[in-house]
Amino acid sequence: MTKKSKSSAQWLNDHEKDEYVLRARREGYRSRASYKLFEIDEKFGLLRPGTVVVDLGAAPGGWTQIAVNKCGPKGFVVGLDLLDIEPLEGAMLIKGDFTEEKVLAELMAVLQDRPVDLVISDMAPNLSGMREIDQPLAIYLTELALEFACSTLRPGGALVMKCFEGSGVDEIREVIRNNFKQLTNFKPKASRGKSREIYVLGRKFKGSSI
Length: 210
Ligand SMILES: C[S@@+](CC[C@H](N)C(=O)[O-])C[C@H]1O[C@@H](n2cnc3c(N)ncnc32)[C@H](O)[C@@H]1O
Fold this sequence. Notes:
Layout lengths: L2 H15 L1 H9 L6 H11 L7 E5 L5 H10 L4 E6 L9 E5 L5 H11 L4 E6 L9 H22 E12 L4 H11 E7 L10 E9 L5
Parallel strand pairs: 1-2, 1-4, 2-3, 4-5
Antiparallel strand pairs: 5-7, 6-7
The chain binds S-adenosylmethionine.
């Protein structure tokens, strides 16, 4: 067995035993990531009946499921991803690359000038394991999500973004600090301890544009 296939086998083995993977299967959620949003929402109370939510990097749809359930029939939930997302009752789903203008235009058309209450982004590039390649790609997605949030959120709205600690994240925090009244860093228990993943939240959007 090569070193790479050994570590993939180990990953698969760990994944199959992971408490959140098992829980997601038992409770009918599409991803272990669902529990990260549960924790975020439990702490910050962002998803309420009637909330308008944009979920970026939504596949396979774990976060979207939670948003639909919590926001109810008066809410409006749009999920977007590069990958297919199995249909989900109560959510509008867009397949496309968020970095492309035409996909952004499609999202804006679906929103139809609705002020957005909450942007959640769990987008992550395919990680190569080489930080000097992965980090700029991850930061680029984060910057685009932040720019989108600042142009669509209603004043008072909120943003939750996955970031990977490292180069460029402090600059993202600075933009959030300038545009939102509250900046918070949160590492859910469901986020693997050894991962550099962290969720950065901006709450109480000031209403200005970057
Ligand atoms: C960690 S997964 C999201 C899991 C999701 N929150 C859930 O609960 O099921 C990250 C997602 O980001 C998506 N992604 C990465 N780059 C993207 C891009 N440029 N446009 C749209 N989605 C992207 C990936 O396809 C992947 O499905």
